Amino acid sequence: MSMRKSLAVVAFAAPLALVACGGGEKEAPAAAPASTTAAAPVAADAGAAAKGSASIVGKISFAVRTRAEIDEAARGLEAAGVPMLREPSPLAGAGGGYGLQLVDPEGRLVELATEMESVVPMSREVARPVGVTHVVLNTVDIDRAVAFYTSVLGMRVSDWSEHRMAFLRCNTDHHSIAFNQAGWTSVNHVAYEMPSIDHFMRGIGGLKRRGITPLWGPGRHGPGNNTFGYFGDPAGLVCEYTSDVAQVVEDQWLCRVWRRTPELSDLWGTAGPPSQDVRTHMAGTPDPGVFATHPELLGVLSGSTS
Ligand SMILES: [Fe+2]
């Protein structure tokens, strides 16, 4: 199944606000092997939950190329016993399109979408994001999470950070999603792509002029080689400006296990170690996801991907 590298829309649905950033399309990568489907993330919706100011992931949406791939995915999901909250059908949300929605083993709502409306790319002269490039999720079972996203969604593991983080790709970007072993299921952070390191730094400067100081950064990570500058949004969600993520050549890339040392998490030595404050922000609060409204799905996937 082919994948689409487009990172088209990201939206954070706070109680009464919707902020959307549009981005351009990138070159489509080669087909994913032996999977139900594979895709590129187009959106991560997070919102302030009824439980207060806690940030939760409402939906993680991935683009696929065609309706036929959506339909094929549905057949694969059904065969694998993966619950779908939406069978293949037209999508009613912003951007329209056609897609399906499934539930992962920790209750996250995952959408596969195609035929979304395009937007006119914004000028790249201005230092603002061109799309969402990755989402990092806290998981209670990193092996189960990796097994599900590789075997069901066809993603591939680019690198590990010891046995604490796993970086997964679905296109040439080193990671489009990553999992962090944690005490509960939650969103760790959402990363926005800046077109260049100059845009990245000017973007951080723009935030600082608005009184928003990075929680951590700027710096450059070892795994993925991407720049990072983390800051909090008004709902408490950790967002990241990033650029220059490593590009994977499939027949040349060797997955490695990185040691978790200050020198490797902060290659430039500019950011220093993450503070307890940023760690607390990244831990978030327990997110029951779809299980809050569909408790009957709890345990449906236990053992199905391991
Ligand atoms: Fe990140």
Describe the fold and architecture:
This protein is of the alpha+beta class and 306 residues long. Residues 1-39 and 47-53 have low confidence and may be disordered. It has 2 domains: 9-114, 2-Layer Sandwich (Signal recognition particle alu RNA binding heterodimer, srp9/1); 131-287, 2,3-Dihydroxybiphenyl 1,2-Dioxygenase, domain 1 (Roll). A hairpin with a 5-residue loop joins strand 14 and strand 15. It contains 5 helices and 16 strands. Strands 13-14-15-12-8-11-10-9-16 form a 9-stranded mixed sheet. Strands 3-4-7-6-5 form a 5-stranded mixed sheet. Fe (ii) ion (FE2) is lined by residues 134, 136, 189, 191, 240.
Task: Please name the defining characteristics of this protein.
single chain; 306 residues; alpha+beta; Signal recognition particle alu RNA binding heterodimer, srp9/1; 2,3-Dihydroxybiphenyl 1,2-Dioxygenase, domain 1; 9-stranded mixed beta sheet; 5-stranded mixed beta sheet; 5 helices; 16 strands; binds fe (ii) ion
Task: Spell out the blueprint of helices and strands.
Layout: E1 9-14, E2 17-22, E3 40-48, E4 55-63, H1 67-80, E5 84-90, E6 98-103, E7 109-114, E8 131-139, H2 142-151, E9 156-161, E10 165-169, E11 177-181, E12 186-193, H3 197-209, E13 216-220, E14 227-232, E15 238-242, E16 256-258, H4 262-265, H5 276-283
Parallel strand pairs: 4-7, 8-11, 9-16, 12-15
Antiparallel strand pairs: 1-2, 3-4, 5-6, 6-7, 8-12, 9-10, 10-11, 13-14, 14-15
The structure holds fe (ii) ion (FE2).
